[in-house]
Amino acid sequence: MRIQVGKEIIELKGPENGGKIIGIIAVGILAIIAVFSSFYTVQVEEAGVVLRFGKHIKTVDPGLHFKMPFGIDNVEFVPVGRQQKQEFGFGTEGASNYYQYTSRSEMELEKNMVTGDLNAALVEWVIQYRITEPEKYLFKVRSSDETLRDASESVMREVVGDRTVDEVITIGRQEIESECQEKLKALVDLYELGITIDQVQLKNVDPPKPVQASFNEVNQAQQEKEKEINVANGQYNREVPKARGEAERQISEAEGYSTQRINEAQGDAARFVALFEEYQKAPDVTRRRLYLETMEGVMPRLEKRVVVDEDTSQLLPFLPLTPTAK
Hints:
Radius of gyration: 53 Å
CATH superfamily of the domain at 84-207: Band 7 domain
CATH class of the domain at 84-207: Alpha Beta
Largest sheet: 4 strands, antiparallel
CATH architecture of the domain at 84-207: 2-Layer Sandwich
Strand content: 15-25%
Number of helices: 8
Oligomer: single chain
CATH topology of the domain at 84-207: Tetrahydropterin Synthase, Chain A
Shape: elongated
């Protein structure tokens, strides 16, 4: 019996030829496995952590790479270029990250917190993070994502426990977010998780359900109060500048009138002094000039004129020289 393998024809004459064929087939299979297991591709948003017999030897960037076949080298793909998040007290369905949220029963436990004044509050929040050191992320702790969840919950409970319920629900949200982010960063660095915290954001923060209606009424009353205060401040900001402007205008007009009257008085006084000096120099001439100037201003306003001499003792009637109305 003859079998053709490639260009070689093998004649089967006994058990030895059968073993040779099996050896050739096994070598071919091993060669195929070696070829297909000696290269791998790292995607754009990933980093490849190469392990040789379970020991980390290098971390590679995105692209096509080669490794030792037959399981000697293994590659862990870590999404270092993608921003990830974890949700607490609620969950977004369809998440690719297994640790993004927990079960419904666990969510209820996560968001139930006690404030510093021994009141209860329902706190939902989100943390956003990136994997920046894949070696630490994979090997420093057993599960970096699970450790991050526990650390975030611990920090949030600590910060909320230092504040009153009014601060947690209303005015202290931004301060809580900033303090949680700083404390969580310090804890992540201490545990060497290989993670960078980008943001801690509070979502829904509510009082417990039995008192939510009463709290909403109080909150609405506070909002109405703030609205009325803002309206009053707006009216104040409109009227006060207007009144100040009107006062300044009147003051300016009064100052202008005062300056005008002073200048006029000073001018009249100077004119009188000059006239008096001229009168002292020539009284008759000045007296006659004043008389003529006065008559020049008075006579044009008279409709009928009668001119007589000082020695006249009798007046005769005369025809008017000016036209009369008919």
